[in-house]
C-alpha cells in the first residue's frame, strides 16, 4: 500500500482531518520540499571556509599587509557581524528561540571565529599577556558562552565548550585515549565541570535544550580520560572503578530519560575499559582472550536484547 | 501536524510483528555481534592451528554459510528487522565467503601472491553482498556490492585509463538501472533506490575525479575527466531537482563543492590563500540569494521548494551537526609566544586558539 493510499484511508476513517491530510499528502507528493538543511549546511561550510581563508591570508601576507590593515580589517568584520546580530536579535528568553533568519546563527558564529583570529593575532604580534596567554582562551570561552545563551546558538556553545577545553589543555578533536599523565586530571575536572554546569543550568530552567550538548561532550571526555588511566598501569583499578561507575550512571540515566546514545556510551566505553584491564597481560590472539571476547560479547548482547525488547524502536 | 494522541493511535495501527530497536542499541548490537563472530572464527583457527590456505578457506567458507543460515533463522523465525545482530551476521557471511574465495584462489595459484585472489575475493564479495541486498534489503549491502564490483577492473592487467573507464561504465549502468526502478516505484515508502542511485553517482564522480582518487593519468583521458567533474554535478542536480530527489541533490551539491576545491590542482595551478575566502563568500552569497528568492515566492516556495523547516528531523540533524562541530573547529593559528606555561601535552583547541603559528 502506498503512503498516499494509507493517508486516504485514515482520512475516510476520521483518524486524521482533511486539513492534516492535505498538509501531509503535500509533503508525501513533494509538492512542498524543504531545502532547510542543505541551505544551513552550505552556509556553515561557507563560514568555515571564509575564516580558514582569513587565517591563511594573515599567515601568508603578515609582513606585506601590516598590523594596521590586518587589525582594522578584522575589527571591521567583527563589528559588522556582532552589530548585525545585536540589531536583529529577538529579546532574550530562557527557553528555545527561533533564529530571526537563516543567516543569523552563522553570522554570530563567524563573528566568534573572527574574534578568535584577532585575539590570536594580537598576542602573536604584541605579546600582551606574555606567558599568561592561555587566559585568552578562558576569556573567549566566557564570551562565547554568553553569546551562545543570549542568541540561543548551539554552534557557538560548542565553540565555547571546545575553547574552554583548550584552556584546560585539551583538544576535543583529539583521540581521547591518548591523554597523557599530566593531562588526565585536567580532562577529568573539565568533564565534571561541563556536566555539572549543564545539569545546573537545566535545573535552573535556562536553555534546557542545550543540556545534551554539555552531556555528550562531558561524557566523551570523561570516558576517554578514565580509559587512558586504565591503559597506564598506575592506579588502573581506581580508574576502572570510576569508569564502571560512570558507565552505570550513563546506562541508567540514558534508559530513564530515553537518551539511548548515553546507553551506548556506557556499554561501549565500559566494555573497552574492562577488557583493557582484564586482557592487559594476555595476547589478543590467545585462546583465553578470544574466549573472553566471545563470552563477554554474548553477555552484552543478551542484556542489550532485553533492553531493546523493552523499548522497541523508540 | 499531528497531535500526540493521534500519533500514538496511528502508530499502533502501523505495528507489525517485527522486532526492531532504536539506532543506538542497533549499533551496539551490531558491534558486539561482529566482535563475537570475529573472535569465534579466530578461535577456531587458533585452536585447530589452521595455517594451511585450503583449510583456512574451508573454515571461513563453512563459517560464512553458517552465519548466513543463522541470519536467515533470525529473520524468518525470530522476525528481527534492522536489529543489529542479524545485520552483523549478514556482513560477516559476505566477508567470510570473500576471504574463503580469495584463500582458495591463492592456494590454487601456489605460492605466488598476485591479483587473482583479490579478484576472486572481490567477485564473491560483490555477489554475496548483492544477494544479501536482494534477500534482506540492506541498502549498505548494495553499496558494498557496488564497491566490490568497482574494485574488480583494478585487479585486471589493463591500462589505468581502461580500468577507470570500465568502473565508470559499470557505475553508470548501476545508476541507470536503479534510477529506472526508482522512477517506477516512486510512490512506495522508503527511498532505498534513491540512496543506491546517489551512491553510484558519487562513486562515478570519485573514479573520474583524478585529484581525489589519486589517479596518475595524463593526456586526453585526464582532460576528459576534467570536463566530466564539471558536468556530473550539473547533470546530477538537474535530474535531482526535476523530481525532488534529496539524496541525489545532496550528493551532487557535495560533488560541485569538491569540483570547485579541486579545480586549481586539476589545472596545475597553485592554491592561493584567498581561495577559501572566495569560496566562503560564494557559498554564503549563494545561500542568501537562493533563500530570499524561494521565500519571496507564493506561500514561501517556488516550484515546490521552500527554505522553511517542515519536519523536526531537519532540526535534529542540525543539532547533531552543531554538537559535533565542537570536534571540528577550524584550526585558527595561535600564538607561539607562550613560554613558561605547563606542558599539557595534549595541544590547544577551540576557535580561540589551536596549534600552529602565524
What does this entry look like structurally?
The complex is a heterodimer of chains A (314) and B (358). By secondary structure, chain A is an all-alpha fold. Chain A folds into 3 domains: 1-33, no CATH class; 38-167, no CATH class; 174-281, no CATH class. Helices cover 75% and strands 1% of the residues of chain A. Chain A contains 12 helices and 1 strand. Chain A has helices spanning 3-13, 18-28, 36-60, 62-88, 102-126, 135-151, 154-167, 184-203, 211-231, 236-256, 260-278, 287-311, and one strand at residues 33-34. In chain A, helix 3 runs parallel beside helix 5 (102-126) and helix 4 (62-88) runs antiparallel to helix 5 (102-126). The relative contact order of chain A is 0.05. The mean pLDDT of chain A is 90. With 358 residues, chain B is an all-alpha fold. Chain B folds into 2 domains: 17-157, no CATH class; 158-271. Helices cover 67% and strands 1% of the residues of chain B. Chain B contains 12 helices and 1 strand; from the N terminus they run H-H-H-H-H-H-H-H-H-H-H-E-H. Chain B has helices at residues 4-13, 23-47, 53-76, 85-108, 115-136, 139-151, 160-184, 192-208, 220-243, 246-267, 275-295, 312-324, and one strand at residues 305-306. The longest helix of chain B is centred in the N-terminal third of the chain and has 25 residues, at 23-47. In chain B, 37% of the residues are buried. At the A-B interface, helix 1, helix 2, strand 1, helix 3 and helix 5 of A face helix 1, helix 2, helix 10, helix 11 and strand 1 of B. Strand 1 (33-34) of chain A pairs parallel with strand 1 of chain B, so a sheet runs across the interface.
What attributes characterize this protein structure?
heterodimer, A: 314 residues, mainly alpha, 1% strand, B: 358 residues, disordered C terminus
What is the gist of this entry?
Chain A is mainly alpha-helical. In chain A, 75% of the residues lie in helices and 1% in strands.
Task: List strands and helices in order, with pairings.
The complex is a heterodimer of chains A (314) and B (358).
Chain A: H1 3-13, H2 18-28, E1 33-34, H3 36-60, H4 62-88, H5 102-126, H6 135-151, H7 154-167, H8 184-203, H9 211-231, H10 236-256, H11 260-278, H12 287-311
Helix pairs in contact in A: 1-2, 3-4, 3-5, 4-5, 5-6, 6-7, 8-9, 9-10, 9-11, 10-11
Chain B: H1 4-13, H2 23-47, H3 53-76, H4 85-108, H5 115-136, H6 139-151, H7 160-184, H8 192-208, H9 220-243, H10 246-267, H11 275-295, E1 305-306, H12 312-324
Helix pairs in contact in B: 2-4, 3-4, 4-5, 5-6, 6-7, 6-8, 7-8, 8-10, 9-10
